[in-house]
Structures are given as C-alpha cells and as structure tokens.
Structure to design on (738 residues):
C-alpha cells in the first residue's frame, strides 16, 4: 500500500516552515509516497472540507524563501477535545492518510502525541458509530507521527536549534544594531524587549551578538533584591568608562527572584529614576516572526523535512513517535514525548521559581554564553590580583577579511583582560607582527566591535618566510609575547604552521599558538564552520532572492558565480538555500557532457512552462568551463527558448556585518582559544592548535597535523562533511517528474 503522508504547520508560525514543507512534499514524492497538506493546522484536520489537499511537485515551488507558512497555521481548541480528535481521525481515514508530520511548538507536538496514543480507541469508536467500516479500521491499526520543531524561541530540549530561531535572531540583531547607532549618537539608554516566555535564548544570544550592556532572562533572574540599583550602577560605570550608549535587552518572560514579571516599563522606570535621563523602550514584537528565513533556517528546515520523511517511512507500528532535531550539526531523531516533557520541565522550573534547575536543564553552551556575557558587559575588567602571573597574549587577524573577526577579537581581548592578562593587538596580520605594529589593548578599545564587519585590527594575506621570520622572532622577544591567537583563514593557518615548523631555528617561536577559523570560504581543516561563512551565505541568499525576483516574467536562466576558492561550500549551501537546480563544484568537476545534459534539462523545462533557471557555480569549479563559457553555451543552445544572464557576486560576499550565528560562534571559539592559551602558559607548555567544531564537539587539533589534513594544492580540507548534502540539494531542486 502506498504510504499517504499528511503535513501540517501548527501554533506560532516560524520562518523556515515553508522550506520544511517543500522538502517533505518533494522527498515523499521522490520516495513513492503520496503527500497531503492539511491547511490551517489542526483546525483543517478537524474541519476537513477543502483543507486537506493532495500536493504535487510544483505545488511547493517558489516557497523556499518565504516567511510564515503558506499552508496556514492556527490555534485550535477543538483539537484539545476528544471530540475534535475523533473528527480528525475520521477525516484522516477518509483521505487514506496513515502518517502525519507536524511542524509546530511543544504544544502542537503534545497534541500530536495525544492523538497518536488515542488512535486505536478513536478508530474503535468510529467503527462503533458506523463512521468507519471494520475493514477500513483494519487498514489503520496505528498511526505514525513525526514532529519538527517550529519555534522562534529555540526552547525545545534536545535540539540545538529550532526552525525560525536563527531568523528571529537576525531580526533582533538588525534592530538592536540600528538602535545602538542612534543611541550612541545621543548617548541614550534603550530597553529592547524580545520574545521568549520561558526561554531566554533570543534575549541572551541577541545581547551577546549585539554587545548589549545588560540582559534579563527568565531562567536567571537577578540574584539580588535591588537588581535595579545594580543594573543602573553598571550602566553608569559603563558610561563613565566611555561607552556612548546603554542597551538593556529584556525577554518577555523575565522576572525577579520572587517570580514577579519584570516588564519593560519597570526597567524604564527604574532607569529613569536612577539615571535621571529619559529612557526609550522598543518592543520588537512580531517583527521577530517576520521576514524571509535566514540561510541557516532554510537549510535546517530542508534537512529536517528530508529526515522527517525518511523517519515516517521507516517507522514501525510499535515505534514511539520521534521529533527531528539537530545536534552538533547533524540530524537526529529524538523521542517525541520525552523531549516535550523535558522542554516543559524547564517552563515548570521557571514557574516554580526553581531557577537553578531551569538553568541546569539548559545546554552547556547556553550557560557558557551567559557567563561570557556577564564578563563582556563589565565597565572595566576585574582588578588584577597582585600575586597573579600575567601573561602577554597577542591577537592578530590574517588572511582575507571575514565577518566575525572583530567579534572574536573583542571577546578574546576582554576575556583575557578580565582574567588578568595583558592583551596585545597586532595590526595588519603577520606583516604587523614583523613591523612591530603591536599595541596594548584596553577594555574600551574594542567597544562596538561585536557587530562590526571587516577587520578592525587590519589583516593581510602575507605568509612570513625567510627574513620575515627573523623579524617576527625579534618582536616576540622584545615584546615578551607569551602566546599568540591567530584569527583568520587559509593564509593565517599557513603562517602559524610556518612558525611552528621553524621552531628549531627560532626558539622564541616556542610559545603556544592557536588558530581560530575565520574565512567565508569555510575551507579550513578541523572545523565544520568557519566564522564568516554564515554571513557570506546570507549575502548570497539575499542577492539570489533579488536576482530571482528580477526575472518573474521572462524565461531566463541565471548563472550565479560565488566565492570559495576551490572549496564548494558556499556554492552548495547557497544552492540549497535558494533552490538552485544545479551547483557546479570543483570537488566534483565539471564535464562537457554534464553541461550538455543541463542544457537539455533547461530546454525541456522552459518548453513545458518553467520561467526561471538558477545555476550556482563555484568560482573555481573548472578553469575552462568558467561562468562566461557556461553562459555562452547555454545562450547558444537555449536558442529562442530562454536567455541567460551571468551574476558574479564578488566582494559583497566578504562584506557586511556578521550574522548572529557568526557572532555567537566567534565569541564561543574565542573564549575557548583563550582558555587554551592561558592553560598552556600556566603549564609552561607551548603546544599549538587550531580549533573547530567537528563531528559533534569542539576539537583542538594539533597544529602539526595541518598539512596532513589538507589538500594543499586546492587549499581545502581532505574531509568536507557537507559534500554528503549534495544529493539532498539536487533532489529537491529537480524539475517535476513526468
Ligand atoms: P505551539 O505549538 O507553538 O506550542 P500551542 O501551544 O498554542 O502552540 O499549540 C498549538 C495547537 O496544538 C493548539 O491550538 C492545539 O490545537 C494543539 N494542542 C496543544 N496542546 C495540546 C494538547 N495537550 N492536546 C491536544 N492538542 C493540543
């Protein structure tokens, strides 16, 4: 029997739900299942009528980049009753649907679970009522459910991210960055209220990403009675130290230690009274749910949708329902009810005032982020203990500029100073280190860096050789540099590696060094993400969305060229996030016969009504079959059926303010790098590493392994985890099967 799958979106909408629906519909069709959209959430299930519609390949075309949910969402009180669920079961049996994928928050998933548990009894009741025949009932002994978490709050236990949370953070950082610039002009104080009833994720990560000055979240109420005094005192001290603005971020569920909600007007009143100045309040409200999904949310939802179909097709009757999550960058299946229970336990702990428990149920990265934030907002570092051994740690940027370099630099410099060490900033990369362009950084010298693109320290691509190394050795000695943090891309790694291999010649290179991956190309070994790649992907996605819109009425194929050097990450992930039908990667090579096939497919498509073609080409996919060649070939072969336009995106991919994801990761990695260096200094060792998230954890790879882990000729790692996503991206962007 063909599996017939229903899909619905329920509860609060979240950006990325459409991408998930698209992936579910197309994957299901590809696997021979039939798929039905149930419009308006559970309400559509209860009401039936026109709400249950069979989907085909093209019915989910053009929705990947849309915010909200095109199949509608609703809150449905009837589904909370057995009567409502009885109607739903009848409608599902009538439509022959035997599996349901629910995209929603913990409420919606709870509902799904209740429904599944009741299924046998609902069917028995329907048989008793004569609504379903005994034979019909026999075909539906069980009902499979798979959940996807659509929730901008990122409040679901067991998954690192929920659908919509990254986009909501985009909206928050855009708004807070904008507010910060006006606040700084007038030296004003702003209170910004963000969503999150029981979960402070958006507030905390938003505050960390924007360099806000205070945050109030539900899980960690201020630990003192006079929190208003403490907050005001801190803000005042910040101003005195030279800050031009004060930004307080408040989660809607924030409360004091007695459980009383703290509203934005409470914060405003306290601040106005004590600071004796006007305090402005901005409520971000539904803006956070609005707008297009970010690159990350499009990819996340696509992969989750794909995984959900696999899970529902594999489900056996006795299996517990699962919810699809992402853990350490990999799809995972979690037991649905247990995860819902754990999620609700956090809310219960918050409501019961057991904040310690609430915090303990949050992930370790959440707790770490909170601790880091508390240091970053200090007006000045903790005073240095007189007996403390102070190390002199130098920070530099190297390689091409990458958004997030400043965020990482700021975090490292402040955290280092707060731990009592002397932080030295090196201007212009290794060239600056040769030229002794080094200065001691102060707490306020990195003010505003959290959100700023480019490289405030300056960066160059120079990899030191020969005499350069002498000059560097002398500066390290003269400046008594104890450790070196290198934030950058390929050239940065090469330079650090060159210092490492030259240790026998230059004893002063016997200091601990660490490389923090920062390159839009995402081509560094030992790290699945490098800082800046997410920002570049968002720039690509924005540009391609606009390019696609420009061609609504014509039959046109765009060939979009993206950066990456020899690494196809931006091309593939950009392709997945924009629905490109073809990506050209150096890793796979480009053959003339592939191009011929592509032309034929394009001709076929345009001849049967298609209006737009989108191909994404990595800048180095093939030296001969370059963008110009491909365009000429397509143009010639496309004859009068379609025309072709190249779009070379160029340096806009390196620019822009860092995305929230890049800011958060930059801060996290910088903290870990600094701890590593301090640890080495304390032990008087000088191991050197490059850091990165890989296979589910943060790893410190021995720098000596650099050349063993890379394909040096093509400047990329030997192992590239994302290549396995190629088949999913290609599948979903196919033309409708005939
Ligand atoms: P979210 O899914 O975003 O958490 P809600 O909590 O409002 O949003 O739930 C959305 C819908 O899911 C509800 O309107 C209701 O139809 C259904 N639902 C929620 N909880 C239950 C439950 N315990 N039993 C049955 N249905 C439920």
């Amino acid at each position: 029997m063909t599996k017939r799958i229903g899909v619905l979106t329920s509860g609060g909408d979240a950006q990325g739900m459409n991408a998930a629906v698209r992936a579910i519909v197309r994957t299901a069709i590809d696997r021979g299942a039939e798929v039905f959209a149930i419009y308006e959430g559970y309400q559509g299930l209860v009401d039936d009528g026109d709400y249950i519609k069979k989907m085909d390949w093209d019915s989910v075309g053009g929705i990947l980049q849309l915010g909200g949910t095109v199949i509608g969402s609703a809150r449905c009180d009837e589904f909370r009753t057995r009567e409502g669920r009885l109607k739903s079961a009848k409608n599902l049996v009538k439509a022959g649907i035997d599996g349901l994928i629910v995209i929603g928050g913990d409420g919606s998933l709870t509902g799904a679970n209740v429904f599944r548990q009741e299924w046998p009894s609902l069917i028995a009741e329907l048989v008793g009522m004569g609504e379903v025949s005994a034979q019909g009932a026999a075909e539906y002994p069980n009902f499979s459910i798979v959940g996807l978490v659509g929730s901008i709050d990122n409040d679901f236990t067991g998954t690192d991210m929920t659908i919509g949370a990254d986009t909501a953070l985009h909206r928050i950082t855009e708004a807070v960055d904008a507010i910060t610039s006006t606040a700084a002009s007038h030296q004003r104080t702003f209170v910004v209220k963000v969503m999150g009833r029981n979960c402070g994720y958006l507030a905390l990560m938003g505050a960390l990403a924007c360099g806000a000055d205070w945050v109030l979240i539900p899980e960690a109420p201020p630990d003192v009675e006079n929190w208003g005094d403490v907050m005001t005192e801190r803000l005042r001290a910040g101003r005195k130290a030279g800050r031009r603005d004060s930004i307080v971020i408040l989660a809607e569920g924030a409360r004091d230690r007695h459980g009383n909600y703290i509203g934005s007007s409470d914060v405003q009143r306290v601040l106005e009274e004590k600071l004796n100045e006007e305090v402005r309040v901005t409520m971000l409200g539904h803006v956070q749910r609005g707008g297009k999904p970010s690159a990350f949310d499009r990819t996340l939802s696509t992969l989750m949708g794909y995984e959900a179909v696999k899970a529902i097709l594999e489900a056996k009757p006795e299996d517990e329902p699962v919810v699809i999550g992402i853990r350490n960058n990999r799809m995972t299946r979690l037991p649905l009810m247990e995860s819902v229970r754990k999620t609700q336990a956090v809310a219960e702990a918050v409501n019961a005032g057991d904040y310690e428990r609430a915090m303990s149920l949050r992930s370790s990265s959440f707790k770490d982020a909170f601790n880091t934030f508390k240091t970053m907002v200090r007006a000045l570092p903790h005073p240095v203990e007189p007996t403390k051994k102070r190390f002199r740690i130098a920070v530099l940027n190297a390689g091409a500029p990458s958004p997030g370099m400043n965020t990482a630099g700021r975090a490292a410099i402040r955290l280092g100073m707060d731990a009592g060490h002397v932080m030295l900033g090196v201007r212009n990369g290794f060239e600056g280190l040769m030229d002794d362009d080094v200065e001691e950084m102060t707490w306020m010298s990195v003010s505003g860096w959290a959100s700023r693109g480019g490289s405030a320290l300056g960066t160059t691509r120079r990899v030191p050789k020969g005499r350069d190394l002498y000059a560097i050795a002398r500066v390290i000695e003269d400046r008594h540099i104890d450790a070196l943090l290198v934030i950058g891309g390929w050239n940065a790694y090469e330079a650090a590696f060159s210092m490492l291999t030259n240790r026998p010649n230059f004893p002063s290179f016997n200091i601990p060094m660490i490389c923090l991956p920062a390159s839009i190309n995402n081509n560094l070994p030992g790290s699945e993400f490098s800082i800046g790649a997410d920002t570049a992907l968002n720039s690509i996605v924005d540009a391609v969305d606009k390019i696609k819109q420009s061609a609504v009425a014509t039959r046109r194929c765009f060939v979009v060229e993206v950066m990456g050097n020899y690494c196809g990450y931006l091309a593939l992930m950009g392709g997945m996030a924009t629905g490109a039908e073809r990506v050209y990667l150096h890793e796979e090579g480009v053959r003339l016969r592939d191009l011929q096939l592509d032309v034929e497919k394009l001709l076929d498509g345009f001849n049967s009504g298609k209006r737009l073609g989108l191909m994404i080409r990595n800048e180095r996919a093939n030296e001969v079959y370059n963008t110009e060649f491909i365009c000429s070939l397509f143009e010639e072969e496309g004859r009068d059926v379609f025309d072709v336009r190249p779009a070379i995106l160029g340096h806009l991919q390196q620019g822009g303010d860092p995305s929230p994801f890049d800011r958060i990761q930059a801060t996290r990695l910088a903290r870990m790098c600094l701890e590593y260096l301090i640890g080495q200094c304390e032990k008087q060792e000088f191991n050197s590493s490059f850091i990165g998230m890989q296979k589910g954890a943060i790893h410190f790879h021995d720098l000596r392994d650099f050349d063993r882990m890379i394909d040096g000729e093509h400047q990329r790692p030997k192992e590239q985890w994302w290549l396995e996503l190629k088949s999913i991206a290609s599948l979903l962007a196919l033309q409708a099967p005939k």
